[in-house]
Amino acid sequence: MYRPLLYAALVPVLLMTGCTAETSTPSEPAPRPIVSATASPTAAEDEYAVWNAGRSTPVADPIYPKRGTDALDVLHYDLALDWSPSERVLTGTATLQVRPTKDAASFSLDFTPYEIDSLTVDDAPATGKVAKEKLTVATPVTEDKPFTLVVGYHGKPMTTPMPSKRSDAHPLGLTVDRDGGLWTMQEPFGAFTWYPANDQPSDEALYDISVTVPKGWSGVASGTPKGRDGDTFRYQSTDPVASYLTTLAVGKYKKVVAKGPHGLPLTYWYLPRDKDAVPVLKKSPKYLAWLEKKFGPYPFPSGGIVMVDSDSGMETQQMITLGSAVAKEGADGLELDVLHEYSHHWFGDTVTPADWTDVWLNEGWATYAQFLYQSERDKIPHASLDAWFRQSDAALRKEFGPPGHPRPSEFAASNVYICAAAMLRQLNNTLGDKKFFALARAWAQDHRNTQQTRASFTAFVNEQTGQDFTAFIDAWLDSRTTPPKSLKDRR
Fold this sequence. Notes:
This protein has 491 residues and is an alpha+beta fold. Helix content is 26%, strand content 26%.
């Protein structure tokens, strides 16, 4: 999402720029499992092995428990979508390959009230209803026995409220713009406003998305572009994707294609009103090259940016969703935001938090990357950066609490960005650049396509450094005041 700007003067301006949700108990929560999206299938799942890379071990989210379920592991989504701008109607057929994690008499997915045109489970007609943003299907399922769900639906898109008080917050999910186009941003949830989804971060899946639009319009989605058939645009994700990291945009777009590091295919989609942002978008190879030097190879087979009519920006996988309002910051500010969103492809996209308690794992790293880039670009003294972090951290902890305990009603508050980045800054200062960036690179590269937790991050830092940083990390994530520069200073 829209990120904090570190102004050249390093004034202690505290911007609303953060992410996520709750828990106010000072003690460390019980460790959650490290979840891999690449576990081996059982023999009973052989026919579903083609979607094995979409396997996860979903966990219930403690911040937004009404979203998603730990009873289902969606392996693959095939979304065939058709948008009518004149009627403002979305028609879709969603085909899901799903692995139940529990025996149950019925199952539910997140879904907004579209009219259901057809519903089958393993090709047999099924009964289902949509209520309270849930599609419940009255078909029994068996643990570890995958099934295929097909839902045909149509209707006018509806958004869902965002649990945030930040100034650039807007309703989540599929939005119809002033010209009859579409766009979506859906962190921490909202994918269910355009397809039935297990809408929580721990269940990552593979995707095939096709978007049919009228002549002269373009359909843009997350994943690798797979060409077009007439007015149908196709995309595919062969790396698993969390639902909040999918995107969809429809409009009368202009298209620019480019090459990034190592020939990486890049695509920029913009509307004529956003043409002034294009020079910054075209600098993407420079930003990606800088990030690769710090954190290792870009983790996906393609990248790009789509401009939409939003106040915010989002790190949607392989195709950043960037709001027009962000471009109005000017070239310098827009550059920092684009760099921030690209950095999330290492931190948040390929390595995803298992639940929203650990959103700091996304935002701390991306914010620190942004600040490092700006400090190099603008030649900001290290001492000034250190002082700014500590001053900002103190004020944000006082207002929003510690970053390891986000509040559900204040998703995207600045503490999960800046306070977590301040922790990484102190870790950087403690280890030195060589050891710190070796750790950062290993974290991103060794944990590709997995979901991680605070406990697993702490264990990784301790193992990587050969030192015990548990108390250090606990202090930065749990303390209501800024930790001292050295934990030895604590009284």
